[in-house]
């Protein structure tokens, strides 16, 4: 289609959708009276094919119509009428579609019950060097699954808190601690301690509700670890910890968890507001020597820059994505960053 004709056809199609939504809304409330302008599926199909011709497929028109009438509050994007979000299938199933499935070998199931009822896993991190996996549940259960002699063993503890929920976790490779964040605290669990299974530290209070955490992996210093954190106000934090901090800055011990308290004010925590909405994920990409952070903010959706930008006010490299970004990852082989909104 010519560009001008397509814009005109698209406007007419959107008017058709608007009329259909109004009609179905009136029908659901019992206020609609049938007349010659009634839009049923046949009329919707004929009008759509007249506007766009062979550019639309029958099954895409049918799916689009079904989506409209099933949820009048959230109309599908007009791109879906062309199957842009569905794939290049012809709408029919056949045995050949099985070849599109990636088959994997049977995996070992871990039968250990990590969490109890009404609890969910909020973070899972693989630590390849030590051959184990760390998980954190919303209600405060941190667990390490260690693969030894082709079998899994696990050890965990329950971090007691009043109302704060755990929102993320990671592993500190140099200090050998499990780090997790709640809405107002940073938890450091010494999983290898023989003195007490609940031995560790708590850094608090954090001013805003923390939503995510990740470790900055750099081989320049084996005596410290750095983490990035994101909160509900759009701030990204940079916190560096050393073994000396655990000796010099601890205060009193939490009776129920044997955790030692450390005041957040005793740390040099850098923070910078990079987004105008919740920070959904932070990640340090070692191959690029850059950190990334994403948000549902439509203007400052994704930031990719040096962690030094968290310590100064220089401009950052940021990208705008409609409706924001919820997740992202980097593929070193393809040298691309993929975002999901």
Automatic annotation (TrEMBL):
Repeat is among the record's keywords: yes
Source domain of life: Eukaryota
Gene3D superfamilies: YVTN repeat-like/Quinoprotein amine dehydrogenase
Annotated keywords: Repeat
PANTHER family: WD REPEAT-CONTAINING PROTEIN 64, WD40 REPEAT DOMAIN 95
Record protein name field: WDR64 protein
Gene: Wdr64_0
């Amino acid at each position: 289609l010519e560009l001008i004709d397509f814009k005109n056809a698209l406007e007419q199609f959107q008017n058709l959708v608007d009329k259909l939504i109004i009609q179905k809304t009136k029908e659901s409330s019992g206020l609609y009276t049938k007349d010659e302008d009634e839009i049923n599926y046949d009329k919707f199909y004929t009008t759509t094919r007249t506007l766009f011709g062979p550019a639309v497929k029958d099954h895409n028109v049918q799916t689009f119509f079904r989506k409209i009438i099933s949820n009048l509050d959230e109309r599908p994007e007009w791109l879906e009428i062309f199957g842009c979000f569905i794939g290049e299938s012809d709408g029919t199933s056949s045995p050949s579609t099985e070849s599109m499935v990636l088959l994997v070998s049977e995996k070992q199931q871990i039968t250990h019950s990590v969490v109890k009822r009404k609890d969910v896993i909020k973070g899972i991190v693989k630590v390849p060097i030590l051959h184990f996996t760390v998980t954190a549940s919303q209600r405060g259960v941190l667990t390490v699954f260690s693969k030894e002699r082709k079998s899994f063993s696990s050890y965990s503890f329950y971090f007691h808190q009043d109302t704060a929920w755990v929102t993320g976790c990671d592993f500190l490779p140099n200090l050998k601690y499990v780090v997790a964040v709640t809405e107002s605290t940073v938890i450091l669990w010494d999983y290898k301690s023989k003195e007490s299974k609940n031995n560790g530290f708590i850094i608090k209070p954090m001013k805003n509700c923390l939503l995510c955490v990740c470790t900055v992996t750099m081989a320049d210093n084996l005596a410290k670890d750095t983490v990035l954190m994101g909160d509900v106000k759009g701030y990204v934090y940079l916190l560096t910890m050393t073994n000396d901090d655990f000796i010099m800055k601890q205060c009193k011990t939490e009776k129920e968890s044997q955790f030692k308290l450390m005041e957040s004010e005793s740390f040099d925590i850098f923070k910078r507001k990079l987004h105008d909405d919740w920070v959904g994920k932070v990640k340090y990409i070692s191959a690029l020597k850059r950190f990334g952070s994403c948000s549902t903010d439509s203007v400052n959706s994704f930031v990719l820059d040096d962690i030094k930008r968290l310590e100064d006010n220089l401009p950052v490299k940021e990208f705008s994505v409609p409706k924001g970004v919820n997740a992202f990852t980097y593929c070193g082989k393809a040298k691309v960053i993929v975002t999901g909104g």
